[in-house]
Design a protein that fits this description.
Blueprint (H helix, E strand, L loop, with lengths): L24 H32 L2 E3 L5 E4 L3 H8 L1 H33 L5 H9 L6 H11 L6 H6 L9 H29 L3 H9 L4 H12 L1 H16 L3 H6 L11 H10 L4 H29 L4
Antiparallel strand pairs: 1-2
Helix pairs in contact: 1-13, 3-4, 3-7, 3-10, 7-10, 8-9, 10-13, 12-13
Length: 308
């Protein structure tokens, strides 16, 4: 005899399978109505500008930004051959580690200091997070006074006469210092939140077992806070590629294009040279670079990040 298989299909009195009730039109459309404001905002301020930039990168535009002629990949070939673009790209790749690595290390050290249960730790938390409340424009003005060659505090303390913003050797370093200071508050807050999430029992157990501070740091603290570290590294690299305000206000890309990083080069091509197609082409190249770095970061994240 062949054994019958019970499929547990509900049946009505007529012996037919009962079909699930269809959703009403209202139930289908209402969730999308809630998403509509976000879709409108993203379409207006993200998707449309992106595709417009991509479209302009394949064209020749006039001084008003209107398309005159489609030229295909000619703009990309011109940009790649341009010495100015090569200089901007080289400066950007020099600027990113100059900014991201110190910001991460200093922010992590400050978070470790503030996380200790000592007198004044609340004051440390307030002081270390203060740069986050300062916009790039006033910060640039303050640091321009600090770096002033004759009345600046920096030369007074060092007893030197260095043109921090007018000397090619020091201009990029000076802008990096300001950007590091601006980004420290964000790094500090995220890393301190990650440290607060580490169970105290793990630290206490390691102390009972005789582990010193550095053993606890490298064996417990850093692995436990690695998701936050990964996020902070990602944010720092993005911020380094997008640094613009302090460059524009402090050096204007000078001296002799010594601080003309890629974002400032895009701004100069669009609003000074009125070559919107060149600015769009450089923007697309910058997007591709950041996308490539992001993919690498997320591949590394699977191997180097420990999730609780």
């Amino acid at each position: 005899m062949q054994s019958s298989v019970d499929l547990n299909i509900p049946e009505n009195v007529l012996g037919r399978a009962v079909t699930p009730p269809r959703k009403k039109f209202k139930e289908v459309i209402v969730p999308y109505l809630y998403l509509l404001p976000s879709l409108v905002l993203f379409s207006t301020f993200v998707y449309f500008p992106f595709f417009k930039t991509l479209y302009l990168s394949f064209s020749i535009t006039n001084a008003k930004g209107k398309v005159v002629e489609m030229v295909g990949m000619a703009n990309y070939l011109e940009v790649i051959k341009s010495p100015e673009f090569k200089n901007s790209l080289m400066l950007t790749f020099k600027f990113v580690p100059m900014l991201a690595i110190p910001t991460l290390i200093i922010g992590f050290i400050l978070a470790l200091i503030a996380n200790n249960k000592i007198r004044g730790s609340k004051a440390f938390q307030l002081m270390f997070s203060m740069p986050m409340a300062v916009a790039s424009a006033p910060a640039a003005i303050i640091w321009m006074l600090i770096f002033h060659p004759s009345i600046g505090l920096m030369n007074f303390v060092l007893r030197a006469n260095i043109g921090w913003l007018t000397d090619e050797k020091y201009a990029l370093i000076s802008v990096a210092v300001v950007t590091i200071w601006l980004n420290l508050g964000v790094n500090f807050i995220f890393l301190l939140s990650g440290l607060k999430g580490i169970p105290e029992e793990l630290i206490e157990s390691a102390s009972i077992d005789g582990a010193n501070y550095f053993q606890k740091l490298f064996k417990i603290i850093i692995p436990m806070v690695s998701p936050t570290l990964f996020f902070v590294i990602f944010i720092d690299i993005i911020n380094a590629f997008q640094a613009f305000g302090q460059v524009k206000l402090m050096t204007g890309g000078g001296p002799n294009d010594a601080t003309n990083v890629l974002v400032h080069s895009i701004y100069r091509e669009a609003f000074f040279n009125n070559r919107f197609e060149m600015a769009s082409t450089q923007s697309v190249i910058l997007f591709c670079i950041m996308l490539f770095i992001t993919i690498i970061q997320f591949k590394f994240e699977k191997k180097g990040v420990f999730y609780k």
